[in-house]
Specification:
With about 180 residues, this protein is of the alpha/beta class. About 35% of the residues lie in helices and about 20% in strands. The protein has five helices and nine strands; from the N terminus they run H-E-E-E-H-E-E-E-H-E-H-E-E-H. The strands form three sheets. Strands 7-6-3-8-9 form a five-stranded mixed β-sheet, covered by helices on one side. A two-stranded antiparallel ribbon has the order 1-2. Helix 2 (about 75-90) runs parallel beside helix 5. The chain starts with a helix and ends with a helix.
Length: about 180
């Protein structure tokens, strides 16, 4: 008796939630997309200060392809992939994409010491202007907002802020951007 009831509930749950899962995300109108962290969601806005005390917001990069890159000066793997991100930035920053014009990096540092953060930006040659941190380290609001479990962590979003890919490794970045580039 328990088995048929369980099967009925399992299938009911599958079919009631499965309809939205089966819809291709690219056909969902922007107005119907939800803010979240999954592919097809609109990325949550990040509002923090840059090293000079200027306010920077992710939403200000609307219209561009953006890599949201969580890193820290003390993170070895982050520092190792920085040259790959720099290379992709130089190559794609002014190119057109399917849903975005140009490529930007929005770097969110989980450092807690400003001098280490700024020194890492300079020594790694991170030339893009969008570097932010609240200097709260691993207690950063952006870390909590994006549910960061480990570094590096990244999201690639299009010109509408829609998440195209999560956890884009520096080694994959060139190939992924080439996929969306208009030639």
């Amino acid at each position: 008796m328990l088995k048929p009831t369980f099967l009925f509930l399992a299938f009911s749950l599958l079919f009631s939630s499965g309809c939205s899962i089966l819809q291709p995300t690219k056909n969902i109108p922007l107005s119907e997309r939800k803010i979240g962290l999954e592919v097809g969601n609109i990325a949550p806005n990040i509002d923090m200060e840059d090293p000079f005390g200027n306010n920077r917001q992710l939403k200000d990069l609307k219209g561009k392809m953006v890599l949201i890159d969580f890193w820290a000066s003390w993170c070895g793997p982050c520092r190792t992939q920085n040259p790959l991100i720099v290379g992709a930035y130089k190559k794609y920053r002014n190119l057109p994409f399917k849903n975005g014009n140009g490529f930007e990096v929005f770097s969110v540092s989980l450092d807690d010491k400003k001098d280490r953060w700024v020194n890492a930006i300079e020594s790694d040659g991170l030339t893009w202007p969008n570097h932010v941190s609240d200097l709260d380290g691993t207690s950063s609001y952006a870390k909590l907002l994006y549910e960061i479990k480990s570094l590096p962590a990244s999201w690639l979003i299009d010109g509408d802020g829609v998440i195209l890919k999560k956890d884009v490794d520096g080694h994959q970045l060139d190939r992924v951007l080439a996929k969306y580039e208009i030639r």
